[in-house]
């Protein structure tokens, strides 16, 4: 285990959505609005804080489903996703309020996605001597993992470092964006190069190292010991510009506007902000006890 100081960076939207889908629709606030996602997310955040006791922590939320810089580059980006219903949008706001009331930094931007905010924060933290633990199951984050970093699928309690990325995808972290550009990512509505699946993409990157090198030496593809190699070469020539475009979508930005990432200390803020939220959200005694303990009350 690395002795570097550790920062935990949470993909908050993922855990709000999970709570929205998994928690029964029986939780309502004092005004009768559904708050099942808020209850589930709060339990998740409490458990993480109790188990890890992190000194440095940030939670990133998505607010750019239709306004990301990627939408300007490629209008079809994430066009297959439905916008959150108003009821869930309201719960997202409350989840952010709970996070801040617990003294945890919230990361949010209307041009950059949560992935970019986490990537930019991790990059800045690395320059300050930190290692990062990315709390998410999203495969895209594999591209961020350096020698000392980890990704943590909290629900399954699985952790992996750079070598785990290769075990899961067949490529190294530095190749993940190229890999997704080649084989596509249906979740984000990125088609990839037609006819190139995950195994072929991994094999091509194992041979050429990068998408740029692959496209520069595309004439060599036809001679590889690869099923359908000649046809694969034709498709790469035909879709070379599209593949480069897709990589602009799959590569996590490291230059998103973030506040000083070296100061992500979890700060106990007392209950002055949390108590009204507990009342509004009608939290039960167990959740209130956990929140009070975490906030030093």
UniProtKB/TrEMBL annotation:
Any GO BP: DNA replication, Okazaki fragment processing
Domain called 5'-3' exonuclease: residue spans: 2-268
InterPro entries attached to this UniProt entry: 5-3_exonucl_a-hlix_arch_N, 5-3_exonuclease, 5-3_exonuclease_C_sf, DNA_polI_H3TH, FEN, HhH2, PIN-like_dom_sf
UniProt xrefs under Pfam families: 5_3_exonuc (PF01367), 5_3_exonuc_N (PF02739)
Gene Ontology MF terms: 5'-3' exonuclease activity; 5'-flap endonuclease activity; DNA binding
Keywords annotated in UniProt: DNA-binding, Hydrolase, Nuclease
Record-linked SMART domains: 53EXOc, HhH2
Protein name: Exodeoxyribonuclease IX
Organism: Dyella monticola
């Amino acid at each position: 285990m690395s002795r570097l100081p550790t920062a935990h960076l949470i993909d908050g939207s993922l855990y709000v959505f999970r709570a929205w889908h998994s928690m029964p629709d029986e939780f309502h606030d004092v005004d009768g609005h559904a708050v099942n996602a808020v209850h589930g997310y709060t339990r998740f955040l409490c458990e993480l804080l109790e188990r890890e006791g992190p000194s440095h922590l940030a939670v990133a939320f998505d607010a750019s489903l239709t306004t990301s810089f990627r939408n300007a580059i490629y209008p079809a980006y994430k066009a297959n996703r439905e916008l959150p219903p108003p009821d869930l949008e309201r719960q997202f706001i409350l989840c952010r309020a709970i996070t801040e009331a617990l003294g945890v930094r919230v990361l949010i931007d209307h041009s950059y996605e949560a992935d970019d905010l986490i990537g930019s924060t991790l990059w800045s933290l690395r320059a300050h001597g930190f290692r990062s633990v990315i709390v998410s199951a999203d495969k895209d984050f594999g591209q961020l993992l350096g020698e000392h970093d980890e990704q943590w699928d909290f629900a399954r309690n699985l952790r992996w470092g750079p070598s785990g990325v290769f075990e899961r995808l067949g490529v190294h972290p530095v190749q993940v964006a190229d890999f997704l550009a080649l084989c596509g990512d249906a979740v984000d509505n990125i088609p990839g190069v037609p006819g190139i699946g995950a195994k072929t993409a991994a094999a091509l990157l194992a041979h050429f190292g990068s998408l740029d090198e692959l496209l520069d030496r595309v004439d060599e593809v036809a001679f590889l010991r690869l099923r359908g190699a000649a046809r694969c070469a034709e498709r790469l020539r035909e879709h070379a510009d599209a593949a480069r475009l897709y990589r602009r979508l799959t590569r996590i930005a490291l230059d998103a506007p973030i506040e000083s990432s070296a100061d992500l200390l979890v700060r106990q803020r007392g209950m002055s902000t949390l108590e009204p939220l507990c009342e509004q959200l009608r939290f039960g005694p167990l959740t209130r006890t956990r929140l009070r303990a975490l906030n030093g009350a």
